[in-house]
Design goal:
Blueprint lengths: L2 H7 L9 H13 L7 H14 L5 H16 L4 H11 L8
Helix pairs in contact: 2-3, 2-4, 2-5, 3-4, 4-5
């Protein structure tokens, strides 16, 4: 997906890279509270931004997004953490 497509579909991603702005919709997509967001398409969009805007290597970007969304899910209930793990293969870096 190209950056212009990403920003059109997810306009909040064009803002400064902030954890809550990026990962709250990702957790919501995984739990089904934002059904208009396809979880894996959104995951791919965030990875693409890290690669194209911030010069991350693709594998590093994937690992960072998984680590960040796993950490962010720790602020939610157990069900959200479980869904994030199921959907993205991401776990909290401390709690597992």
């Amino acid at each position: 997906m190209e950056l212009d497509e990403i920003y059109k579909k997810y306009p909040w991603l064009k803002e400064e890279y902030q954890v809550g702005i990026i990962y709250n919709p990702m957790v919501a997509a995984a739990t089904g509270t934002r059904p208009e967001i396809n979880p894996m398409n959104y995951f791919e969009a965030v990875v693409t931004i890290l690669v194209k805007v911030y010069d991350y290597e693709p594998l590093v970007a994937v690992n960072e997004v998984k680590c960040n969304v796993g950490y962010y899910a720790g602020y939610f209930n157990e069900n959200a953490m479980k869904k994030v793990k199921e959907v993205y293969g991401a776990v909290h870096p401390i709690f597992g």
